[in-house]
Amino acid sequence: MGGMFRFPRRQRFKFSLRTLFVVVTLLTAICGYLGWQAHIVRHRQYLLERFVRPRNRLASIEINPFTWREVPDSWIRTAMGDYAVSSWYVDRSISDSDFEAIKDVFPEAIVRRIVFSPDAPMVFERRDGDTVAVEESDMFPFEQKERRRLAEGEALDEVFLLASSSSSDFLADPARLSDPRELIVVAIKGETGTLRSALDFGKQRLEQRLSAEKVRAIRQFFKTSGADSLPRLESKRTIHGREQVIVHGTIYVYLHLTPQAGARVWINNPPTKDDKDYPPDDPLRKYSSLVKFISYLGKVVN
Q: For residues 122 and 281, what is the distance between their CA atoms, to the nearest angstrom?
């Protein structure tokens, strides 16, 4: 019938064999790439699980989310449960192949070898704006001793330590600080503690029990002073707009240890009370307050 309306025939989707090959190739590349990223994530998690453990560990890490910007395609790995690691501190006993594997699989991290005691707390120090781990080999004997005490089962909550030596003695022989002029140790367990001091190169030794009231006062001071976050105080500093090097005075080492971690502050010639080069509100006065407080504790006997 000439007047009958006919619906147009529906056209099927058509594509060439070349298009099929392109699509398959793209899907294969995408799946392969995602599979490779998943492999990297699994390898990273394997290394973390192998070396970074609560007990008997051979490494410690620092996590900094801002380091992801240095790693390409980080959002893909983040979606897979990965995260950025800014620093690895591995024990010297780790093999060269494992050390290189960590460096390869964690390109965003700074990887360093240190002497790593499995149960002893890691000790960190602020230097030039960075927080770095202090190697046990770089610690003085009195620091190593207190650090190992916490690892060997002494149920202490925290330890505060201050050691000092004259700048001239230290510059002449850095090992002189191994036998400090003054060594003051406050060991706290629960609500009470013990104070040990060795003055005048150990010629005067004192030990006393600390009451709960004194322990509370000590903890309150360190909590409000922010001593653990103080950066390393070097001998070179700017005074009245001029860069100067302070070579005469006293060098101190402050150490705060807990079973989990530790903080160390190197203090080179803090301002004295009558030092007019530093106004009362100068940030360097914080070092003076820290040294004065611990030194006072070491010379007071109940």
A: 33
- Sort residue 226 into left (φ over 0), alpha (ψ -120 to 50) or beta: left
Long-range contacts of 210-215 (CB under 8 A, 24+ apart): 210/186, 215/188, 215/191
At 216, list the tokens: 């509370």
Residue 49 structure tokens: 């699980």
Structural domain boundaries in the chain = 55-116, 120-302
> What token pair was written down for 142?
């009195």
Q: How many whole angstroms separate alpha carbon 40 and alpha carbon 124? A: 29
Does 2 score more than 70 pLDDT?
Answer: no
Burial class (CB in 10 A: 0-12, 13-18, 19+), 120: buried
What is the distance between the alpha carbons of residues 60 and 66, in angstroms, rounded to a whole number?
Answer: 19
Instruction: Give the start-end residues of each E strand in the chain.
Output: 59-62, 87-91, 110-114, 122-127, 130-133, 158-166, 182-189, 192-199, 204-210, 236-239, 242-245, 250-257, 261-268
Radius of gyration of the chain (CA): 30
Amino acid at 101: A
- Tens-place pLDDT, residues 60-103: 666 655 455 556 667 788 888 887 887 787 777 788 888 899 88
Q: Are 111 and 90 in contact (CB under 8 A)?
A: yes
SS3 126: strand
Distance CA 133, CA 116 (A): 10
Residues 6 or more apart whose Cβ sits within 8 Å of residue 125: 131, 132, 133, 134, 232, 263, 264, 265, 266
- Range 120-302: architecture per CATH: 2-Layer Sandwich (3.30)
